[in-house]
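Sample intake sheet
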Amino acid sequence: MFSRRVFLGSAAAAALGAAAGRRIPRYKVVTRYEPEGRLGMPGLYPGRVVSVHSSRAMDVETERVDRDVIRRMIERGMCELTGASSSREAWRRFVEPDDVVGIKLNCSGAPGISSTPEVVAEVVRNLVAVGVAAERIYLYERFQNQVDSMHFPRYLPEGVRIVTAERRRGDNEAYDPLVYVEVNFFGEDDTRSNLMRVVSRRLTKIINIPNMKDHGAAGITGCLKNIAYGSFSNVARSHHRAETHTYSFIGTLAAVEPLRSRTVLHIMDGLKGVWHGGPFSPDRKYRFYPKKLQFATDPVAVDRLLIDIIDGKRKQMGAISIWNRDPKYLARGDPEMRRDPNVNLYIREPGHVQYAAGLGLGVYDLEKIRVEEIEL
């Protein structure tokens, strides 16, 4: 079943891809869900981002987080985004006590870079404060070993559930066979990517907590990639050798119902970031420390800002741009070359953010994005 909104958005985005000289694969989207309400992406505040910075949020040497500062940053950011007079009122714009709330973690770089446990814990605390029972809150991610390395239960009240799709790589039991995107990229045997069952059959609202990271294939890992690639199976097949289809695949996945309608809030965890080697960040020398949190309902707007943040940091460090498409900078199989900031594993596709805007997921034009900077 296709909703008219998704069909028309796909046509517009395909035209955008053609204009950019990209080959857009033929996607078959299968879902039994229709759009729900008005909170889903791009949400209540399209084109609006609230960015809260505090120099006291994290100690760079130890990477220890000040929980009291994080609490104030989140309260200020949520009130500023919504115009609410209290934190409780702000959170009630997005969730009700009878909701089942999912928190989409980003643990692909754990333990080096991940959704910060203190940030996640403060989101949970606010959900409980507005009446959502701990048992109705789910932290979710695809891979069990990545989540285990972060020890989230130490920070959470009893009852909060942690759900992963794959205890071992390739497990399929936790994915919904009735919600999927089918596409053949490179002649692979398995051409189907299924949505996690907890998203389609359990959750009613989703809060997305990504990190500021570069990505060898997509250019950046931000709100869009975290909610899309982190909620579906079999997604790494989109890039092979030098070629990648992240340009169109990320937005296509993010637009699938019910993922699109249920994702109501994005909190970009920019306490620390990765300017090269993402998403896994094994080397601390490629980390940087923005010490900020960004709040939005529009994932495209946040990711558009992230493109400039990552590319600006790379320029500062003397590395090639994430927009660089020159084949001479591609790695040629030498493992040592992969560590070089002036070598690409793939032709990167940061244009996936603009493609997602063509699907109606948010605002890409910087002149139409309103950023409110707050210093604590």
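Comment: The chain has a mean pLDDT of 93. The domain at 4-375 is CATH 3.40.50.11440 (Rossmann fold).
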